[in-house]
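Hello K.,

You asked for the raw outputs rather than the summary table, so here they are, unedited. I folded two proteins back to back in the same session to keep the settings identical. This is the first:
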Amino acid sequence: MTEDLDEYFSDNAEWVETSGGASADPEPSQPPKSRRDIRKRREMRRRRRMVTVVAVISVIALIAGIGFFGVGMIRHLKAATASDTSLQIEDYKGPGDKAVTFTVKTGQATDQIARNLVKKDIVKSESAFTSAIAAASATLYPGVYALKTHMRAADVVKILSDQSKAGGFAEVKAGERVSDVIANAAKASGQDVSEFKVIIDGGGKGILPDEANGKFEGWLEPGTYEVQGKSAETIIKDMVDARVAKLDALNVPAGSERERILIIASIAESEANNPDDCGKVARVILNRIDQDMPLGMDSTVAYGFGINGSQLTDEQLQDGSNPYNTRVNKGLTPTPISNPGDSAIQAAMNPPEGKWLYFVTTNLKTGETKFVETEDEFWKIRDEYKNNNENAN
């Protein structure tokens, strides 16, 4: 390689002669005039060769260094990536060992849930849990869940996203009676139902508004409530406070009119098979009151006896000692007979115009209900109900 470089620089050190015409290049160097100049030129050539060799070696070394560094960096990055991947998929194989309970609180963030699961050794890593949520596009629900230690993250997500497996929460359904509500709340909270009955039978001081007259029926707002770790009084108060807030939001008149609307709405909720019929049922109630007629609602009679309508006997239907027997006693019932939902309350406030006095659910399968104005029309739709019911059997 040195000889090649020497030949290269020697060739380039030759004087260039022109073949005639004028040249734009600068004039060539003059030939040496003495041996001293020759030695000087040779020394300069030698130094140039050395500089070139050093430069080439430096470039080669630099390229080799970059290559070595690059390979090392790639290996490092691969190792880091593999480490991260290993961390993300770090998971237990399941199905789990020791039984534990786990609580998801209302409004709790996913990362906090993941941390708590790792702390209780239910899942092995936060990343495994969050990855399982993303893979399943799951929604987590608040509640108290029965889990195990050392579970697969995907199995935990499946449970926490199943609302039916959530304990510690009580639901109030539209049309439910107070007796049903407190039974569910007692079960969900792990308390004895007697603790709730004490509150219900105690007159509601400090809990109920004055217009409720010490009675809770109708004053528990439908919805889902967190009951874990709460007293029976706190749980019931939460339901009442939610009801008052909802009535205010719906612009239900305050005072005695509010209780009256709840009574009408509760009867309509219990009698109507379709939400769209609540308004017509409310109108029938008002029309019957205007004409001084008994309401004649079996649902109210059944409530007074604490049974379902299908359990009523002819004797019970004629028992006027039952204050909720609207077949015998005129006017509205003493209290609501259930906890009505929004649609029934709005229907009671603004029922449609009509002269209906009677209604019959003529088709039990579809819930079709017909409303009529006269007694003759009533017997016709009553016969229609019988015919449909016989055919159904």
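The second followed immediately with the same parameters:
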Amino acid sequence: MDEHGQNVEPKMTETELRENGGPQCEELPSSVQKSIKCSVRKKKSLRARYAYGVIFLLTNIIAWLFRDYGERILPMLPYSKACGAEERECNHTMGVLRVSLGCFVFFFLMFVTTCNTRKLYEVRNTWHSGWWTMKFVLLLISFVIPFFIPSDYIQLYGELARVGAGIFLILQLISVIEFITWWNNYWMSDDRKKSSCSIGLFMSTVFYISSVCGIVVMYVFYASKTSCSLNIFFISWTGVLLIVMMVISLHSKVNRGLLSSGIMASYIVFLCWTAMRSEPGSEKCSPEKQESGHIGWSAIVGFVIALCAIVIATFSTGIDSQSFQFRKDKAQLLEDDIPYSYGFFHLVFSLGAMYFAMLFISWNLGSLTRKWSIDVGWASTWVKIVNEWFAATIYLWKLIFPVLKETKVMNHEETIEEV
């Protein structure tokens, strides 16, 4: 009884509701029941992301095992041959491509079955977040079937995987640039306090100093001889891109500050370093010397880091569907909306399957890949250099395009006024 003599029904917490269950659920308003159900489904959906990430990581490990130790695992399968017309063994390139094809098929089927999912109460949301026994069977079938496909078709998949890996790199670049833009807007916004802006200026200074130091270190280790003309060109052009981005960012019409350009400068310096690090160790301008029959701890640690980087890059790009929307609508996220785009998530993972295949075989279908190595060779070097140049081009276009668009609109308005 309350102070007015009326009966008061006790309120139940979500924990009590779960423990008691049954008739007590009917005592809650329908809106509260719907909110609890949506919260449970949303948490289940968010946890499912990490399960798919673990599947992708295990797929990478399996591909590596088939590449380096394939003959010991399944010696009866002739997947290690047929790398081209020469019919020679190519260090299990076919094994990597077959594992990659299985991973691609699984995630592409998940993309087809979850594309355009909008609400948490849809059946496709349940399929994405649950039904793990059935998905395990589907995954097993997807991995077994490619080992019975003729090598000629696997070779064709390898050619297509190059295109898919290139698309993945473009998506990754856009995601990175959007993150840099968000970080710059967060720290250098006009609404932020002076202390926050000071932190932003300090961070931009750190990034630029790191970029300059990185260029100097690359000159010392990778371009110490005049005969290393290609590396000298790579490093020098990276320095030119750094200066161009800084000048355009500080231009009065652009006025984007130094933080975003500083972060982007560090990123392209890192890409340049990884590109030259991918050069074969036998080259005279590469400090990484290959010792026949000996694998050091540095090679093993570098391989593990690179493997984790592949998974993290794929996972972070997959959950960043907002960066790829053509219309930036600021619609409020409803309670029963899915927390991220399932279709885009699985599409990125399917492209990531093609990407890790190219890294394991160094983008060359007929190459001999050394054990405990990843993404090493001239093909890998040029892919990363082009990736660096493309990243700088996209970033500069994002700086210049708003100015060009504004100028075009102003000219159009002046023409209308004159008429």
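The chain has 13 helices and no strands.

Happy to rerun anything if the numbers look odd on your end.

Regards,
P.
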